[in-house]
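User: Could you check the structure of this?
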Amino acid sequence: MDQLDEQYPLRLTIGRKLDSFNTGVQTGLYDSPLRRAEALDLSPEDGQHYQLHEGEKVRVSSRRGSVVAPVRFDPGLRPGLAFLTMHFHEQVATNNLTIDAVDPKSGTSEFKATAIRIEKCREE
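Assistant: Sure, the predicted structure tokens are below.
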């Protein structure tokens, strides 16, 4: 697992959203209050620390790549922990941030966590 340091101080964990858990085949055609656009979920404390506003776009960078995502605050996250899903690559290409390593026994890819930093996107 990536180590946190001064350059990459946040732990990004990657997972699924409930409404998209089984690819959305059965529920994709129905409106759901759970369905939201992709965003980087941060604790409100991290939002304050980085002087961010809900919906503001940030560049999320790891040692392997970077993506741009809007910010959403989740009071259920502890400071220092961020969350993205991997559902909609065309919105946020989350796996560009993760490591290519695989578990030697199962062969499963390590797409679940990485060290990141975030920066406000510059106005263009």
